[in-house]
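Worked Example 4.2. Consider the chain below.
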Amino acid sequence: MTRELKLRIISGIILAILALAVTWAGGYAFALFSVVIGALVFSEWSAMTRLVLRGRRGLALGWASFALAAVALVLFGILWALAVVILGVLAAILLYRRDHASRWLPTGIFYSGLAMISLEAVRGSSSAGLMATIFLFAVVWSTDIMAFFFGRALGGPKLAPRISPGKTWSGAIGGTLSGVFAGACVQFAAGGQGLLRILLIAFVLSVAGQVGDLFESWVKRRSGVKDSGRIIPGHGGVMDRVDALVVAATLALAIVLVELALTGNLGQLDGQQASIGAILLGL
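Applying the procedure from the previous section yields the following structure tokens:
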């Protein structure tokens, strides 16, 4: 085992313990955790895509949009925070059209805002939210870890050689199967109903997480950087660790939003204590 891999494993364990502890605490502790992750994501995104070199007004707009969304999330709830993020994205698009600001700006506002909102939405304040977050972690982390080991052990055709040369189809498939199995185990432990639904959700979230990983690799390749940052020893930046989690959590939120909208129950998400956990897991 190389020194870099040892450092990566140790850092990963510490981060996992921290994430699980904050998830268990819930409430404002997890809300703050989500806000900090979103803020670090926007900071790394801004540095990677060099937003400051393309206009300070654009960067100021991005931070203002994120800050207002964070306040809305804590005080008023998920839907208000989503509305603020959408308004920020629209304002960034208008700025790009008028002042030739970076096209990376609206994407950065959207990506970092959803990183914060989706994580807090999944956790909420209920015990179902706790299990839903553990379910999300289990699916994403198992997919990520086992994709690495399956890919190393089996090799084979590359998944997306122009974006991330190290990823293979064997790793992607092995990671997905592992993520689905981990999700099913959490669902069984939680006593939820609808195994087929959970297997399907776990499969979709596992694939979404890998798409999120590839998306961040594409952004880094376009930006000419190896890592999104240097804050985590052996891993790089925060985006390098939460890229899959952000997309999977966002899709989990989208699934529940669509389900609530189709049934006319979108009002269930009013208030800052709302959680999509019970709906997601069928608890």
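Residues 3-281 form one domain. The longest strand covers residues 164-168. Compare this with Example 4.1 before moving on.
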